[in-house]
# Entry
Amino acid sequence: MSLVDLRALPRHVAIIMDGNGRWAQRQGFLRTLGHREGSESVRRIVRASRRLGLDALTLYAFSEQNWERPQLEVDALMHLLEDFLVSERDELIARGIRLRTIGRRHRLPARVRGVLEAVMRDTEHLDRMTLTLALSYGGQEEIADAAREIARQAAAGALDPERVDVRSFGNVLPSMEVGPVDLLVRTSGELRISNFLLWATAYAELHFTDRLWPEFT
Ligand code: IPE
Ligand code: IPE
Ligand code: MG
# Structure
């Protein structure tokens, strides 16, 4: 913490948490163990972000494309998500952190959705920091959904098509509710966006690190 210039903090940080599988495989463990270790990193980074005083932290936890992974791995990730929510609920409340999600939440298993929606309800009044989990999320999907919503409003006569502009999208993109991203981090050495926040990162600073997510501090 003493190395950080607190007067020059980004307001909104977004992270592509990558490298769990490689972290595990490097040590001869199953990939799912890497995800377990990765969820410890999530706890650590959420705490540190709150202590630094960030307004918003957005974490890429599960992409729309991650459904194509082996069923056992998807199941393990869903269990870890549920465990995270159950075990962090009190801590989020104690630290004043509001939890929200972006992405196609309806695709998540009902159990996970139940816990998720309960924690979202329990924290919706909190305002020290907003933690957004991108779950079943895709940046292109989000923009396509926004375009559909704008088209619907135009078709209903509530919006003049000639007036559709950048701001119209900002108004309907769920990821933009917490404002644009100032700093985007990707761990594990990959130099890709992988369909994360395509709109909100238009002017974000980009930081790529070779560190794998379970060892990111
Ligand atoms: C990131 O780690 C976690 C998720 C995508 C859910 P990976 O599982 O992608 O790990 P690598 O990239 O295979 O090492
Ligand atoms: C991006 O990582 C998705 C998340 C971190 C949740 P991936 O490992 O799924 O992305 P690709 O496949 O390397 O592009
Ligand atoms: Mg990966």
Observations:
- The two ends are 11 Å apart (CA to CA).
